[in-house]
Amino acid sequence: MELQQLFEQAIADSKLLNKKPDNETLLKLYSLYKQATEGDVNTDPPSNPFDFVNKAKHDAWTSLQGKGKEEAMKAYIDLVQQLKG
């Protein structure tokens, strides 16, 4: 199966997990997904100092700066496989 197909399957599988992942893992999934689909972060950080959720998302995505799209896809697939058990 092609990497893109495996990635799309992992996205679908992530929505069917038996147990909701903790917040740190959700941020990791989010950031890997964004890096795989959009590349390096392309938005400014939230300007509202109390917007903790979007700041955490932005910081998580920024932490992957420079990681290739294919590498991010593989990491996302691996993480979903771990979560599936």
Supply the key terms.
85 residues; Acyl-CoA Binding Protein; 65% helix
Task: Describe it.
By secondary structure, the chain is mainly α. The protein has a single domain, classed as Up-down Bundle (Acyl-CoA Binding Protein). It contains four helices and no strands.
β-strand amount: under 5%
What are the segments in which pLDDT stays under 50 over at least 5 consecutive residues?
none
C-alpha Rg (nearest Å)? 13 Å
CATH fold-type name:
Acyl-CoA Binding Protein
Task: Describe the structure concisely.
Helices cover 65% and strands 0% of the residues. By secondary structure, the protein is mainly α.
List strands and helices in order, with pairings.
Layout: H1 3-14, H2 23-38, H3 52-62, H4 69-84
Helix pairs in contact: 1-4, 2-3, 2-4
